[in-house]
Amino acid sequence: MKKKKIISWNVNGIRAWHKKGAMDELLLTLNPDIFCLQEIKAEQIQLSEEIQDPKGYFSYFDSSKMRKGYSGVALYTKEEPLEVVAGLGVKALDQEGRLLTAFYEGYVVITGYFPNGGSGEERLDYKMRFYKAFLKYIKKLRKDGYQVVFCGDINTAHQAVDLARPKPNEKNTGFLPMEREWIDEVIKSDFVDTWRELNPDLVDRYSYWDVKTRSRERNVGWRIDYFFIDRSLLPSLRNASIHEDLYGSDHCPISIDINI
Q: How confident is the model over 37-70, as pLDDT tens digits?
């Protein structure tokens, strides 16, 4: 069992993110053992060698099968996994390139770009179906003997403390009761929100800010990026951080240090 630093970052376009030097800064500043990216907006074939194959890492990608330049996730790891699987195994939910699971000895690390529920009832329904299938998926992984670490852009703020303006957003996707109740269900299923577990009283800490309204400058944000771990791993958790000082996207990276 070794201490590992795992990073999650919604990069909102991996090619633009890389051009800004954010990948180099991430590797130099934090030196992660595993880093998980969401919303890469590219197919692997479109990526430069530097992005596809950074020195010292094995890399894996899943992209949208429906629209180019949309969605997509990536996972980079110093230790070669036993296997990496894309999707949930549900065809109707696996066309947008939203999930990668890396299997190691006794545990898994999952990077997920969970759907946004905007653009009408159909997308909200899709989001809730994805949520339901995902919870079923991670419960099965646990039943199969794996300890689960999952991270990514969940696209929902769990509690009022997790967004700057809860009251005006009560009827907006990302803070709807049904979306927040799903996170309640995840926690009831013995998965731990690592940041809130270690920082129960910290406020005004967010991972996403709207670019159009320049909300990052005013810290009018949302905490919609998470690391969840099996409760059985909690004694091994050493740190959970939000890295607001790292730029390159409308989200900032988050991380955990864990003995695993």
A: 999 999 999 999 999 999 999 999 999 998 888 9
What are the catalytic residues? 153
Distance of CA 78 to the CA centre of its chain: 19
Q: What's the number of domains the chain is made of?
A: 1
Rg of the chain in Å (alpha carbons): 17
146: domain CATH number?
A: 3.60.10.10
Q: How far is C-alpha 207 from the chain's CA centre? A: 11
Closest CA to 152 of 170, 134, 169, 173: 134
Its domain, for residue 177, covers 3-259
pLDDT in tens, 217-242: 999 999 999 999 999 999 999 999 99
